[in-house]
Amino acid sequence: MPSLPPGFRLQRETNTEEFFINMGPQHPSTHGALRLALRMDGETIVEVVPHFGYIHRGMEKQAESMSYLQYIALSDRQDYLTAIQNNLGVVIALEKGMNVGVPEKGEYIRVMLQELGRIASHLVFYGCFGGDLGGQTCLLFGFKEREMIHDILEEVTGSRLTTNYFRPGGSRYDVPETFIPRVKAFLDYLEDSMRDYERFLSKNIIVLERSIGIGVLSKEDAIAYGCSGPVLRASGVEFDVRRANPYSIYDQFDFDIPTFKNGDCYDRYKIRIAEIHESMKILRQCVEKFPKEGPWRSKEKPVRLPEGRYYSEIETAKGLYATYVVAATTGEKPYRIHTRGPSFPHIAALNKMAQGHKISDLVTIMATLDPVIPEIDR
Amino acid sequence: MGIINFAPKILDPIPGGKYVVNAIDYVVNWARANSIWPLTYGTSCCAIEMMSSSMARYDIARFGSEVFRASPRQADLFILAGTITRRMAPAIQMLWEQIPGPKYAIAMGACTISGGPFIYDNYAVVRGAQNLIPVDVFVPGCPPRPEALFHGLLTLREKILKETCRNPWHEGNPKDVSTMDRYREAAKTWAALEEMKDEEMAEARAKFKEEHPDYKSSFKPIRVKKEDFPEVPRVPFNRFGLTQSEIFAKLREKFPNVTVHTHSEDPIEDVVAAIPADRPLEVMVEPEDYLPIVEFVKNSPEFDMDYLIDVTAIDYDDHFDMVTMLRSLKHGHKLFLCVQMKKDFSIPEEKRPTSLLASVKSISHLYPGAEVKEREVYDMFGINFEGHPDQRRIFLDKDFVGYPLRKDFTHPQMIRRPV
Amino acid sequence: MQENITLLQYFKRYFKRCITGPWSLICGLSVSLKYFFDPRRIVTEQYPENRKTLKMHDRYRGRLEMIEDEEGNNHCTACGMCERACPNASINVLSTKNIAGKKVLGRYVYHFASCTQCGLCVEACPFGAIRMNQDFEVATTDPNSLEMILNKKEGQG
Amino acid sequence: MFVPSVTNPIGDFVRDMVPRLAEFLPASLQSDTLNSIVAFLINAVICVIAVCVVNIGSAPILIYMERKVCAHIQCRLGPMRLGWHGTIQTIADVLKMLFKEVYAPSGADKLMFYLAPLIVLIAPFIVCALIPFGRNLVVADVSMGIPLIIAVNGFGVLGILLGGWSSNNKYSLLGALRSGAQMISYEISFAMILLFVVMISGSTNLMSITLGQEGTIADWWIFKIPVLGIIAFILFFISSTAEMNRAPFDIAEAEQELTGGYHTEYNGTPFAMFYLAEYIALVTNSALATTCFLGGFLPPCIGVSFVDNYLNMVPGVVWFFAKVFFMIWCYMMVRWTFVRPRVDQLMDFEWKFLLPVNLVLLVAGAAYIVVCG
Predict the structure, then answer these.
(1) What is the CATH number of domain A19-377?
(2) Pairing outcome for strands A35-41 and A19-23
(3) From D73, which residue of chain A is nearest by alpha-carbon distance?
């Protein structure tokens, strides 16, 4: 219900004592193995200290002894909600090194799978947001449509989650004939369901009360902390790599970059819902323009990179995903691969957002940041 | 549960008591096998498949297992979903201890069975959950499909049904498989076998060679025909903001020491001009120039580098390259600053792996987001950041020895890749 | 969060919410009622019951398998390309010499325990000797059974 | 002075039957004292069994129902494999919990730790004894029924507070304190709605409240007073949901925030008790709603005698449970639809919205009675 009316200020007179609460590494709402040390004053958070590293798997060290192709397979395990997008991030960096292009059909496949992955991730967000607020039903609603995406992904790539699909110069297989009709059917289905889901959650007074004005991240802070993706755009910065540095053929599509002003939890929720609709818009254009004929990949070459440093950035569902490949000598193995995951800065800014809020709000904020912890820890 | 285990002792002497014990067995097993409540626990990819299995499409509720308990005290089943790192291991053992018996564990996915994708060259991952807790059922896959998890659940159900009062559930012991190298073991055994076989076969082979001096195998392996594709030229992505040459010229004007990394003899301006459009300009700066340059590019309206993408480093034999990736949200251009730091070789050689070998100024007062990134570089490379507000290890334990991303890093638990 | 508003605005908002709030809740409830009373929306697949009709997609990557003809002959030449392609050394291609002294496949050991089913081995195989099958019911209580020998016969050559 | 009276229809029946049966016994054993003692014992046993059957018997059914209802909202099937459509799934769950290892965390106050679930169970049992399930089908027909219910309902919070406090866990403590604050606040509006019912029905006895609704559907308290009745019913629904700690007001358990709230540290049988108490409270609250607003065991007559005759042929207890299950279904729909408010919003809602509306309602009800009847 509304906040106190003017002139009705409560004075805190009791002497209270701060205490510590340890949230995680096994906790239902930390989205994985993240540990948050909370300094609390009753139910109010005084300070949040995130402790990373509970799922630090040494991927970057391991990558040094792997071939580039093997690293594509490993990159699936970073942001596993949209593994297909990680694949593309790595592959684009490799393509820059190998200097190979992608035929038109290959690009269309890429864009379509990217957007499907984005929708899948945002549906998980929808579910987790509702679920973390206490509405378990949302969780199942979100996952219901996501299963259909994974069905499509499995048919195309051979695996539901860890796709390992893109290759420098295109992809591993051509898409099956049923791909386009299935995507079309899915889009119609999703459009219908999204209407229900938005009705279910978007205007709900309890959701509004719990998310409006909660976890505000100002425009300046969002930029300073290096936030990206929906979190940055919810704070009013129109930055999307698909528009700012278009990769693949994103410059050929007509879509908007939804931007909100307040930077609170509700805006971060709305922006992801809006992005689902934008992705659907892109997918519809793809379905229309999808080239039936033509090669889907360029000439197969061994993946060898000349000496140099190659950088690629793409916009995943969570934000800016950058890959930095260092090849010290020409060969099949990298000298070093570094990944910049979008969730890391978001969690770094958590303290800024959560201070002064209740412990329940921390859960809301965590849900709207939508972090994937293995991507942070790598 | 204790009382039930005494049932045979009390009931067996009574005539017909055996049947009562059997009946108790039946009821108890039926209840246990059909009401398996898992613990809400998951660290990575497998957790998502575990969640999927409880969602509408697959619906673990059909088995009565949708009651995912967040508190270990109310759970029966520990589905180990996701990679187990050394840092997480104590937490897992504690969770296991908190689950009241009878309790069961399913190792879901390759990571928890053997270490999976992180088995070699890895200092952080525990090779298999068996090292920590006793595991009942193994579900291989990466990650396994929800159906595979259900198959694991059904396998576990069969295992539970085999328990009786006379042979009750007891907590097993963890099994140390952490140093197991299946690849090398298999190769070693085979080599021994092969040696024996060579000795045995030597005569037969010699005889065969005598009999068929010009033997040609009839087996011709058929190469799989791969579809042929045309070569497609790469079109660089669009670029916004200042060009590389402009950035370089402007930087050079202010800081004459900046260069770019090159092997060619051409004038440096030409080298910069030859960089493809979508590759960001990476300039080499001196450590003492680093902070002034960052300050300059952040504050000058022409550059307006307000956004820090990342800070990372690369380890070479005698120096570190620390790369700071900056971007201007307004203009759209990027600038990578590569600080070359000579390693401090005045430190005695035996102490080098555990000590900070280089030092650079922190930029976390300019970009608050750099704080965690610099902590990461400190943690992984052992580079000291002067003026960093909170320089602690970030991903590794504070008593971890060494800096893993250095090339000379060794760890007692790390197994080298065999191929 | 304290906002600076007049008392009138405060009460205006209060009463507005008294109306929009319940309405939004009714909207939410209507969705769940719609879903509750519509059994066609149920999407559950009943796994152990639908075993007969359950079919994985053609490209589904289950377990690694050696392609063999009726007599059990395979196409493997023990070149070791799959072994090198594997990201975590889950394949041992153990070669032997046949009676003619030629290098042939002796034992193709597959460590299913660490396999990530990425399919790079299949991609790397120049002779199409291996494939990923559609087997997904792979749970076991014995971890040692996850170490498999894929070839029934020694390689040809 | 108002003297509360307790009548017990079952007891009357037993007291009537025991001397008649005693006649068959040898004369030496016949005595009035013995008769009354036997009658008391038989009566007590019957009553306890009745309450236990209703409570403990209904809990597994409700848990099953909840699992099915939530499954169908969420487009899935729910328990399917144990029994026909998973009907005996919850029995397996309860049995399993009974056979689990039980232990208290180190540093816990053991006595209080094990006492807490028992205390939580007491309140719904007492309430259940007061509710008329049919004509003459009530364990204790107390003249001060409603005040007693209000008094007893506060008992549950004691158990939860004790459990949370004695667990030696910060999450439990937070959960317990939350639930304490919440339940005590909502107790007020809960009591005031019941007061409203007392006011319009003119009685504190649950039987006479029920019988006061005799007639057609329009005579039920929910419809008898236009608009006010429905508002009162909705307010009762909200405050009883909060009273029961059920979602969306389940901030005391709040799995996503506190991993389990006050029962984080409980396992095995004590946890089963908390789990059952939650559902037994659901039964009693629905029964109360049915009695106070939906005509209790009275059939939903519509004023057409042809239909009403058939409706009257169905025993009252069937009508009663039909209405109770409808109420429970409503609680479940709400639970699986809405998200959970924050603790301070919950308090705000009670003190700034529910209570003022309640007060207005009371005044309006009084005005209605004065003006119309």
Answers:
(1) 1.10.645.10
(2) antiparallel
(3) A137
